[in-house]
Amino acid sequence: MGYKEDGKWWVSQSNFAADVLKGYEFPKKIEILDTTLRDGEQQPGIILTRKEKVEIAKKLARAGVHRIEAGTPAASKEDADAIKEIASLNLGPKIFAFVRNTPEDMKLARECGVTHVLAEIPGSEHLLKYGKRWTAERAIKAAIEATQAAREEGLYVTFFPADSSRASLEFLIDAVHQISEGGHMDSLALVDTFGCFSPEGAAYTVRKLKSEFRVPIEVHFHDDFGLGVASTIAGLAAGAEVAHVTVNGIGERSGSVALEPLALSLKVLYGYDTGIELDQLKSLSNAVAEYTRFAVPPTRPVVGDRIFGWETGMPSSLWVNCKNDEPLAMLPYHWSLTGQSEPKLYLGKKSGKDNVKTWIQENNVVLTGDQEQELLGKVKDLSLSLKRDLTPDEFIELTKSL
Questions:
Q1: What pTM was computed for the model?
Q2: What range(s) does the Pyruvate carboxyltransferase domain occupy (predicted)?
Q3: What is the mean pLDDT of residues 202-225?
């Protein structure tokens, strides 16, 4: 893969310059853990039923996600039943449950049929002190006892120290050493609970953890500064093996790292194929939007409904000229790569002659050159009065007025 793949994408050559590539330490394999069914549902206002969770899990498996975090068994019977059903379906991805660091939660997860857990406990000094009102010693002791219980249950444990991005590295490393030595830990999640990592800070911390621990490092970031995807990629490029995501980036506050731009960026901008079926992203996004009742913004990267199209005259003309010979002259990647529809030309205040000509052809309208110019003026006036682009019906009505 390179900066240009015929019929697929065309991005900057600089992405693949030797001086750029030599700075990466991507692992041989990156796994994607989707936490839509747990962290995504924690977005206020989102309620997913058991049936909806099962359907989303099936679509996640179809999209090639490697791990599905199916929910928190202790949250409700509905959640526990959903986890049991998802685990029983043998969809292909590894199924994780999200648990507190208590022996009881480990037993409950095992009863739900999962073999993998993410075991959470506050991971920063201040969140323990002010949020949990626990001492560090108490938290470490609880994590040791719980992860020992998890091992006895035969569970794979991803230790999940919340807010570890804001912990002092000395505190975090010391605590994790105590827990890994006294308890059980198969992998370690670096958790940016409040989305406050810069990409450089994320990469630095991942490298520190990689130098201290022999277990895989996972990155679980949020998007409070709009840098979640960039920081996750920086963490992966520093050697982290697992990225945590949600569909449409749903989650608490500003949301979590979105699956769609992460998977697409890794493949197209970095040349790293995670195995995610990119052409499934749009349909997956649509399904989650339907089940969560939270609409996707029309210009959201990768999955927005209006990202492939133009209203303004100049780019519309450029598209008309190149679409049949080389559509990627006007696009960073082909719409079909992510399951999108062919670009369209919109009609509005900023449109030009080629927008009008396209709409005339699509609606089988016959006009003279002077009428086309008059129609363009009417389009602009109506669009300005409506403060939006026009519908096909409104266009037809304008043609009747000529």
A1: 0.95
A2: 30-282
A3: 98
